[in-house]
Amino acid sequence: MPAHVRTVEVSEADRQELERRVRDKGAPARVIERARIVLLAAEAVPGKQIATIVGCAEPTVVTWRGRYAERGLAGLEDLPRPGKPAQLPEQLRDRVLELTLTEPPIQFAATHWSSRLLAAALAGEGTPISHATVARIWHRFGVQPWRAQTFKFSTDPELEAKIRDVVGLYLHPPEKAVVLCVDEKPQIQALERTAPPLPVRPGHPAAASFDYVRHGTTTLFAALEVATGKVTEACTERHRHQEFLAFLRQVARAYPRRELHVVVDNLSTHKHPAVRAWLERHPRVTLHFTPTSGSWLNLVEAFFSIITRQALRRGNFPTVADLIAAIESFIAAWNDRCRPFTWTKDPDTVIAKATDPHRRKTQTTSVTEH
Fold it and tell me: Do both 118 and 202 map to the same domain?
């Protein structure tokens, strides 16, 4: 081994912890940097090359490589700093928090504060403060003005009744009946990447080229059997009422002579006169509608999330046929290992959550600002 290459011995337990730190998107940059340095050093990568890969100075590599060699994971922690921590005046801290909870003045033309904007506003009041100090105060008190959440209420006048109906099916299904959750996932794109993907490596996630060629789309119809997790599927070019009705017929054939209770959302194709007429001729099949803006009650949405993460998002599909084959292969494998989908919340809890914005599941957006 060349003299300028210094390796460190990393136990399997330490390796797993270091890789976890690298994958942790919420970890401080310094923690990720130190973990990457040690992992690369364990692979006998020269210090200069490690510095280039990680984006730091070579002495930094020497420091953390040596600290780990001497003390293990404990060596990657910051040493106690000498002296008494600087005390922030309580009045200044309170003013920062008070101002943060208000809208920026109109002259800033901003919807919310950034640390630099708030520091500038305080400087205008005759109170000089650095944006880094503002950021530390925010961090200490869990204030995050750069983040925003969205929520949506259902305006369905039958909200409570529909929730009790659907949740009742999950918690207390009718005896000898089958409860199915049905929906379509439309416009799944067959995307072919313009370059081969890069595999996962220690300290590096798998990567795919940003550019792709779009080869068309398919729509996935799926029926999830709640009691087993088994999925019945069909891929179609379109998602009109004709395709939905054809899929209902397919599902009915898959469960002959069984009473079927089918949970669906409020898409107009699910209520088409042709669908209603077919249901009248087949009374063993009953549709149960989720409230408007309440498709989250439909458990098949959880399956759509699973197949997207595990089979579609990283897939490479030169043709729509390849995409459909991948979907069918995943569902066949899924049905060999599936487990029941268990609903745990009672109707009252679900209703309270659906009508209170502070308890609803929300979507958070976050951007880095200056």
Answer: no
Question: Same domain, yes or no, for 59 and 205?
Answer: no
**What's the pTM?**
0.65
- Co-location of 282 and 141 in the same domain: no
As a whole-number percent, the residues of the chain with pLDDT over 70 amount to: 94
Complete DSSP assignment for 227-284: TT--EEEEEES--SHHHHHHHHHHHHHHSTT-EEEEEE---GGGG-HHHHHHHHH-TT
Residue 2 lies in a domain: no
Distance (Å, rounded) from C-alpha 70 to C-alpha 42?
14
Q: Which domain holds residue 110?
A: 90-145
Q: How far apart are CA 251 and CA 332, in angstroms?
A: 16
